[in-house]
Design a protein that fits this description.
The protein is of the alpha+beta class. Helix content is 63%, strand content 17%.
Length: 379
């Protein structure tokens, strides 16, 4: 974010300078010095790019680890969802079992009540009649065979009573067993459900935590990549500027060497000199002539810039080496373009009325390391 802000601030300052600052001041420092500054800035910029690349690589590695963790957690969640589904199915099966147990329980309770009632009746009868039944049986028998038969019947009834008592004991034991079984089933299913839900809750919380970490890492990666793009763009701009200055320096060495004595830049007469004028400082000389009159390079050099300025209108800036530059303003048009080498006396433009003017004329300046000098001292 800091890098992007820095780029924006530089861009804004450049835009402001284009409007407010004299075009020649852009090249105030010697080109060699600018080239050294650009090289240093490129080296610093390259270090930052390498650092960002390392951060990007590390973040990508961290994101891969987080993604693997997330996949593992999602697999765990999937398994837990299946476990919960099976638990619910088991709960359904247990409910059916419990219903069956309850039904069996009711049947046993009903049979137990009946058997208990029968046994109670038998006990009451025995208590009520006691041994009298045996006496009545002896008196009431017609013969020994009849007596033996009745004795045998009473013995069978006694055995059935014992069996009934045993059945009642077994039914009661079975009853207790079923009740305990029902309790165990309910506790088991409740425990399984709670445990599964607990594990599921933990896994979901872990998944959310991983998602938060993942989003943070992605956000950092996005910012890092944006910073890298900004730095690479700045590096391209610096390289372009570096190449531009190299071309200018190359053109300067290939062109005619500056003589140090300037030619009069157009066919006209001096209308306003260098120095204070109307409460302001006039940084050059004005040469009056007809519109369209050719403007020549006052000495050999390299066209640094052609452009438009609110006050100066169409202008040309020519660099002659050693921090020496000439400036031509209020032009009607251009005969050269930026970066082009020019020879001494070569036509570079035409007199006009662009910018703030009261009539056709050439505004001509001499600047050494960006500082305006009286042009008349160099003719």
């Amino acid at each position: 974010m800091y890098i992007i802000k820095k780029i924006l601030i530089i861009a804004v300052l450049l835009c402001v300078s284009a409007v407010m600052i004299h075009p020649a001041l852009i090249y105030a420092a010697p080109l060699e010095e600018q080239l050294d500054n650009i090289k240093q800035e490129k080296e610093q910029n390259q270090k930052k790019i390498e650092e960002i690349k390392e951060s990007e690589s590390e973040l990508l590695s961290q994101i891969n680890v987080v993604e693997e963790q997330n996949l593992k957690t999602l697999a765990e969640l999937d398994e837990l969802y299946r476990t919960l589904s099976r638990t619910k199915e088991n709960i359904g099966e247990n409910i059916i079992k419990i219903e069956g147990k309850n039904k069996e329980l009711k049947e046993i309770e009903s049979n137990l009540d009946k058997k208990t009632q029968i046994l109670n009746n038998r006990i009451v009868s025995i208590y009520k009649y006691g041994n009298n039944n045996l006496l009545e049986l002896l008196i009431g028998t017609e013969d020994f065979l009849d007596f033996f038969s009745k004795i045998k019947m009473m013995d069978r009834i006694a055995r059935e009573d014992v069996t009934a008592i045993q059945d009642i004991k077994e039914d009661r034991s079975r009853l207790l067993e079923i009740k305990e079984n029902i309790i165990d089933l309910k506790e088991e299913q409740e425990e399984n459900k709670k445990e599964t839900e607990r594990l599921l809750s933990q896994a979901e919380a872990k998944s959310k935590e991983i998602e938060i970490i993942y989003n943070e890492k992605k956000g950092l990666l996005q910012k890092t990549q944006q910073d890298k793009v900004a730095l690479l763009a700045m590096d391209r701009q610096l390289s372009a500027k570096e190449n531009e200055i190299k071309d200018v320096l190359k053109g300067m060495t290939q062109g005619t060497s500056p003589t140090g004595k300037l030619l009069w830049p157009t066919n006209g007469k001096l209308s306003s000199g260098f120095g204070p004028r109307g409460g302001r400082f006039h940084s050059g000389t004005d040469i009056y002539c007809a519109r369209g009159t050719p403007v020549i390079a006052a000495d050999s050099g390299q066209v640094i810039q052609t452009g438009y300025h609110r006050g100066y209108g169409n202008f040309i800036l020519v660099y002659h080496g050693g921090g020496f530059a000439t400036f031509y303003a209020h032009l009607d048009g251009f005969a050269v373009s930026g970066g082009q080498p020019v020879g001494r006396g070569q036509t570079i433009g035409y007199v006009g009325t662009t910018g703030w003017t009261t009539g056709p004329h050439l505004h001509f300046e001499v600047r050494i390391n960006g500082i305006a000098k009286n042009p008349m001292s160099y003719f």
